[in-house]
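User: Please predict the structure of the protein below. I'd like the answer in structure-token form so I can feed it into my own downstream comparison script.

Assistant: Understood. Taking the following sequence of 386 residues as input:
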Amino acid sequence: MKKIFLLIFIVLAFGCIKPIELSSIVENEPTLVVDALLTNELKHHVVKLSKAIPLDSTIIIKETNAQIKIMNNNNVVYNFSEGEEGVYLSDDLFKAEKGKKYTLEIVTSDGTRYTSTEEEIYGFNTIDQIEIKKENNKFNEEVLAIHVKSDGTNNENAQYYRYKFEETYKIIAPYWSAEMFDKTKLPQFVIVPNTEFDKICYGSNQSKEIILKEATLLNEKSIEFSIYNLKEDNFKIAHRYSTLVKQYVQSPGAYAYNTKIVRNATSQSIFTQSQPGALTGNISSDKKVIGYFEVSSVSEKRMFFNHSDFFEYSQYTFSYPSVCEIPYAPPVANNGSAISLLERLKGDWIFHSYIDPGAPPYKIVRKDCGDCKKYGSVNKPNFWIE
């Protein structure tokens, strides 16, 4: 299975200028994999390079010591320098501008040159609103669907869209305690104020799937797309949830390329010799290359909501990724039939509560049920609002 997952990863992320049967990637020489997106955001842009490798290996090879530059049609050159292995960052802040064309050029450490076609921003559109709607999914389960809406005021030559999102969510450890055992005093069970385990954390994930949408009519200005959904029992929305949605306006070529990647991956035709059409990108070389140098405009918007905004109290209000129990633990094993408190504390258990203050029997809980740090960071994000 690891072999299949590695090929899926490569195919979902990248493409090539001349048709490549994916079976040849693993039978012959390594293939350069290029991840390059230039947007109209003023920032240090990133190009990532790696190599497709034989399926009997689980190692991802980073392409290091390459020379990378992006040039526009006014002969302005933006150079990139390698930071982490295989990750190249532009030396200067810059952004793609309307009406200018851009070319990506890569020279690898062995002297091989890779060049993209000229690309430019194809269109613009602004996210006006993110709306949450209760809907039923294909399994007839009630979900919260995340809708992106635009009234069309800023729509300019935009028909093809790709979406990415970054979700951030509040996590509350359901069995956090204000007290804990002083581990330095063990095997004596001394209760002290809790200074080690945290009650509130913030988790974060970035979307990984390719989310593509197309406006059905060429003259369609206002758009509304549902881009992903969340079930009521998803622990991420148990308390407070935020999503930052990014909307990329793609060129017809970039959209067609990504659409073919999705279709091939979902049909599993990429694993057969009779693959219905090879992937064609916009990067060329004498050697094999997978990738599409994309130039896109981008719009983003963030929104927040609470579980209580959409659902009444339910068992899911305190949903948590771990199944939590709170057993009593005797200080000493009872004729070998019970695990002693000391043995549990040496494992993954912590203090929860007691019946009589400061005295046994004690209730205990697994650490991740009383300490949220396994699932997120205790640092509240700068953008977070309650």
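That's the full token string. The chain is about 10% helix and 35% strand.
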